[in-house]
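Quick start: what a row looks like.
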Amino acid sequence: MYNLVIFASGNGTTLQAVIDAIQEKKLEAHIALVVSDNSKAFALERAKKANIPTYIIKSKDSVGIDNELYQVLSKIDINLIVLAGYLKLIGPNLLNKYTIINTHPSLLPKYGGKGMYGMNVHRAVIAAKEEHSGVTIHYVNSEYDQGSIIMQTVVKVLPTDTPEDLAKRVQAAEKIQLVGVLQSFAENKQS
């Protein structure tokens, strides 16, 4: 079985898309654990409802988080870690041991980096009068949104778009793209 660990800090809609794809047999994988740095994240409720174990990070600083997660994850068989709305940098212990990917709501390298997530990205895209935005799935390295790009999906920015309108279309594209990438990884047993 292709084992995933998913890190999420918020609502968990991307996590839910992965759960649904697995349940509908569109993705041949297993979510071994959902990790969050936010004890109030609705992603944790989604995981519990699907009988997926959860873990809430206790450490507050980046070195502590890296060491803590290394200890926790070392006890699990993991093929891939997926960041799905997780906003902290990943430390060297995890980067050196695991393959980690991230979903980002823009066409990187545009609108990436610290502070560029969620609605911040969509507001910036609209303010810049971009004709296109989209989704990027990339490998994670030691810098925000700088890892090698795996796949991008273009989403047209409409002249009447609000950041919320654009966010809905980008999120819909993100879920489809992520499930496709994960299925490809699972079929090729990439880790």
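That is the whole record. Residues 107 and 134 are 5 Å apart (CA to CA). The helical segments are 13-23, 42-49, 62-73, 92-97, 118-127, 163-188.
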